[in-house]
Queue: 4 jobs
Job 1
Amino acid sequence: MDDATDPEAELAELDRIARQIDIDAPAERVWQLVVRPGWYINDGEVEAEQDLRYEGDVAVVRHPSLGEFRFRTVELDEPRYAAFRWIGTPFRDEATPSTLVEFWIDERDGGGVTLRVVESGFSGLADDPAAWLKEREGNDKGWLSELAAAKAFVEKSAPAPTRHS
């Protein structure tokens, strides 16, 4: 059977979202944003300050209209890689399976960086593919706007990188 028509292969591919954006800022400045758990919980614009507290090793981000979101840091490799487990939302508690959100910051020739994000593990959110595909759909669209918000925030608050010929 051809993988292009194999429903299991199609679902496996949908288990993750991968997006990227070029940002005209140094890796260290992008890192300052990416390392903040849940910076992408916003209304389309990254806040300079967020309502963030810690309960042990769990970061709790409170958004005024969206509620509380909980994250556990999985790995930090400054300034290139950060991974967080999205463990609780207003829609799921910490006992519910969660997704992994990973960020990579890659320097570009000529200056600036490419910020890549992969969110994976959607198929573990529910036994019924229709249920987890619905959640994935919202996040798929969301990452496009969140990466654009990250770009605007970081470029606004950082000097442009030096371009090399």
Job 2
Amino acid sequence: MNSELHSLNFSGMGKCSGGEFDRVNISGTGKIQGNIKCSKFDASGMAKVFGDVESEKFNTSGVSKIEGNLYSKEIDVSGVLKCTGEANSNEVRVSGMATVEQSLKSHRIEGEGCLTVKGDIECEQVDVYGMIDCRGFLNCENLELGLVGTSNINEVGASNIKIENGKSNSIGIFNVFTPAKYKNNKLVANIIEGDDIVLENCEAKVVRGKNIKIGENCKINTVEYSENIEVDKKSKIENINKV
């Protein structure tokens, strides 16, 4: 960013108009009316932006709400984030709770937290130990999901899919904010489709792939495979078809 730009700091309560800044630091309560562009957005308090945010780095360890779109090379959520628009980033790390009400695009998504996306997720690598709630289509090259709590994904499409039971049914703030019925470690999906698939604790209508390994505690209506299949005796599959 331009070194002549001023930084914006909130250590108490305040509000201002949008604009272009060097850094935005919010350790108190800050409201920004309008779009902002900055080198780094850092919120450890409560932040609300009525507009789009464009930054090199976006970090929230407090509570942040973006009434618009979020564009940042790096997004790091260790607190709570709600974005009412779309989010676009090279790398997303979630160790808290993040909600995107439209689509999410990123090269890599990782972390130990809870990610909710009401649109589609488009990514190269997803490596999450926690919960994913995707109402649309999760499209990626590689998906590794360690189930902690109940994940819901409408449709999954990936080359390599590995979904396994997590070691614990509670991570940090999940115990406080997550209803008891969502604390079972499982994935509920309509369609799971890929080349190489390994599943545990999954409930799905259709699973399609070349090489499929169904581990423990799965309930699947139909499995379609083209090369190899392996099914654990603790899982239930209604129909298995070789295509």
Job 3
Amino acid sequence: MHRIANSQFWVHDQDEALAFYTGVLGWEVRSDVTMQEWSFRWLVVGPVGQDDVGLVLMPVPRPPMLDATTSTQLAELVAKGAAGTLFLETDDCQAAYDELSARGVVFNDPPTRQAYGIDTSFRDPSGNNIRLTQVMAYVPDRG
């Protein structure tokens, strides 16, 4: 049997990302290990109460892992929100929106009713997309 343990976001600055995910979103640190010999930091955070999955905050690779041009291109794509999306579920999208807004999260749009539920989105400091959804029973003609 296989299960998802972690997913990963490229980040421009691990300390800035750590402050956002723990200080603003209220998540917890799952792992923060620096391997000096590799000049590498393994940093994993996750929502409190959901211990079986984490989000790895991985720095955009620099030379020698990627050449300078490719590293810059990847960093630019991340900043534009083109590197992926994290989908979060909540029981009350409006309440979560209000709470996170008060903590300093800048949303791309207000909670909006969709056919699948109520949905909104924001980005982390690196530009990664995060969608916040209150899932409801799917009704094709719900507007």
Job 4
Amino acid sequence: MKVVRIGFFDSGIGGLTVLHQALRFLPNEDYIFYADTLHVPYGEKSKEEVREYIFNAVDFMANQGIKALVIACNTATSIAVDDLRQKYDFPILGIEPAVKPAVQSCEGKRKKVLVLATNLTLREEKFHNLVRSIDHHDMVESLPLPGLVQFAENFEFREEIVVPYLKEKLSSFDLKQYGTIVLGCTHFPYFENSIKKIFPEEVDIISGSIGTAKNLKGILEAKNQINDGTGDILFFKSGFKVEDKETLSNYKKLLIMLDELQLCHLNFKR
């Protein structure tokens, strides 16, 4: 019997932070995780380039017989999710910055929201439309942090390296003004502890990963497509199956690391 898997796609290892949430809600499903590492980072490339990379990757995954696809990349979601849904007949879920819960949590506190993301995500009309629909009091500000994507892809998580980068990028911000930080790139949750060191203790840090995982479970339940699988994950890098032990070990270490971080965005609170 052919195993029908759920596909997860990202430009790199950031999508593992979303897959980590799916494994919590759907531990018995089987998965394909596709990282387009030949073309990472997406956030610094043109929209046209990125669209081509995305469609090539999703064509590959569709040929694997997936029953649902999660675009576990904020940049890819903002650029292509609507067009992908027109082309394919399986459910396609995207991820977007968790601006709505952030604004709702800050309205009564008279605090601002700071969205941290890639340049391309923050430039996209989809993001600006999202903010306009929710932010009626000019509470939302944003900052691109492309360096965090590069750190993650290089497996560089040491606080003595990451914290100085964050301090430099945030040097012109009054950090006391903010009530919630939105992690608008799936690579950024790896650096949550470093981000905590920069902002006041009472600041909340959230992302959209948990909402995406919940939506995935709800869609599969509604379609009666919940499987009793093994939780097996096949990993691909830009169309090639990952079979070398070192890379597989690194991916598994990252999933374990995410467990150990006890990420704030699991419940939107510290």
